[in-house]
C-alpha cells in the first residue's frame, strides 16, 4: 500500500505520473472517492503520463473512453449504469483481458465484475487540511483468493 498527499490539482498530476510510470499494461485500477474527489483529475494525470494528448473527461454517458498512448488507456465511469450486466454490452470482458490499462470511476458499483487481481485507488478529502487537500491511497495487491 502506498499513500500520497496532494495539496493541489497539479500535485495529483505528479502522483498519477509516478503511478503511471510503474504500469506495464493489463492493470485494472478500481477508483473510490466521492463526487468531486478528483477521480477524473487523477485519470487526466495518468493519460498525460502515458503520452495521451486528448482532453480527458468523465465518460459518464458512454461508460468508457479509449485512448492510445504508451499503453492503451480505457477510462470507465460506471456512475450511471443501472445494472452491472450493461458492462458486458460494451465489451467489458475484452477490455479487462486486453494489454491496456483499465481505470474505473465509481468502481464500487461493479465490484462483482472485478478481475482476480486489481489495484484499489482511494481519494479522500480532509477539509481540516484545506479545500484542495486529498489523500490518495494505492493498494496494488488486491485480489480474490
Ligand atoms: N488535490 C486535488 N487533486 C485533484 N483535484 C483537485 C484537487 N484540489 C482541487 N481539485 C479539484 O477538484 C475537482 C475534482 O473533480 P473531478 O471531476 O476530478 O472529480 P471526480 O472524483 O471525477 O468526480 P465525479 O464523481 O463527479 O466524476 C476538480 O475541479 C479539481 O480541479
Ligand atoms: Mg469523474
Small ligands present: adenosine-5'-triphosphate, magnesium ion
SS content category = alpha/beta
What gyration radius follows from the Cα positions, in whole Å? 14 Å
The CATH architecture: 3-Layer(aba) Sandwich
Low-confidence regions: none
Secondary structure: helix percent = 10-25%
Helix tally? 4
| Rounded average pLDDT | 96
Distance between the termini: 18 Å
Number of domains: 1
Sum up the overall morphology in one term. Answer: globular
Strand adjacency order, main sheet? 1-7-6-2-5-4-3
Q: Could you name the CATH homologous superfamily?
A: P-loop containing nucleotide triphosphate hydrolases
CATH class: Alpha Beta
Number of strands: 7
What name is given to the CATH topology? Answer: Rossmann fold
Query: What composes the largest sheet?
Result: 7 strands, mixed
Share of residues in strands: 25-35%
| Helix and strand sequence | EHEHEEHHEEE
Tell me about this structure.
- The chain is α/β, with parallel strands linked by helices and 145 residues long.
- It has a single domain, classed as P-loop containing nucleotide triphosphate hydrolases (Rossmann fold, 3-Layer(aba) Sandwich).
- Helix content is 22%, strand content 31%.
- It has four helices and seven strands.
- It has helices spanning 9-20, 39-49, 86-89, 92-96; strands at 2-6, 28-32, 64-68, 72-77, 101-105, 117-125, 134-143.
- It has a seven-stranded mixed beta sheet, covered by helices on one side.
- The longest helix is centred in the N-terminal third of the chain and has 12 residues, at 9-20.
- The mean pLDDT is 96.
- Magnesium ion (MG) binds next to helix 2.
Amino acid at each position: 500500500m502506498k499513500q500520497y498527499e496532494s495539496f493541489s490539482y497539479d500535485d495529483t498530476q505528479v502522483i498519477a505520473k509516478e503511478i503511471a510510470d510503474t504500469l506495464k499494461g493489463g492493470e485494472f485500477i478500481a477508483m473510490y472517492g466521492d463526487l468531486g474527489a478528483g477521480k477524473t483529475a487523477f485519470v487526466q494525470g495518468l493519460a498525460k503520463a502515458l503520452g495521451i494528448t486528448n482532453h480527458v473527461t468523465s465518460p459518464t454517458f458512454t461508460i468508457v473512453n479509449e485512448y492510445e498512448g504508451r499503453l492503451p488507456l480505457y477510462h470507465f465511469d460506471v456512475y450511471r449504469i443501472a445494472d452491472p450486466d450493461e458492462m458486458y454490452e460494451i465489451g467489458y470482458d475484452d477490455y479487462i483481458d486486453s494489454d491496456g490499462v483499465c481505470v474505473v470511476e465509481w468502481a464500487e458499483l461493479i465490484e462483482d465484475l472485478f478481475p482476480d487481481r486489481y489495484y484499489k485507488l482511494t481519494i479522500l478529502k480532509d477539509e481540516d487540511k484545506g479545500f484542495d487537500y486529498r489523500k490518495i491511497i494505492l493498494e496494488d495487491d488486491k485480489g480474490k483468493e
